[in-house]
Amino acid sequence: QVQLVESGGGLVQPGGSLRLSCAASGFPLDEYAIGWFRQAPGKEREGVSCISSSDGSTYYADSVKGRFTISRDNAKNTVYLQMNSLPPEAPAIYYCAPSWAFLLDVTYFGSWGQGTQVTVSS
Fold first, then answer.
1. 120 closest CA partner among 16, 41, 6, 38
2. Quick check: 49 and 109 in contact, CB under 8 A?
């Protein structure tokens, strides 16, 4: 059974940092591109970043470029999203998902986990 479990979310002050984890079970995570997405209440799910399965290439949405870093630890079957300099914004749930395609398009991803909520507020 393919399962992804996101963790690491929480409440952080503006300008702070969080590291999200995406732990996979039931499949070797390194055979897939892994994407991080977020969804705020009333809004569509949007792509944040993805990492390829082959050479570890990464891609970031313009809104997070320079502040977020995606990485993977194949030995732990886990992908991380380091988020720095977080701006104040509405709470959002962050999700990770696998894909055969290295393309930050939500329609290419499936097997969504429950997500982890991130709230940036003072």
1. 16
2. no
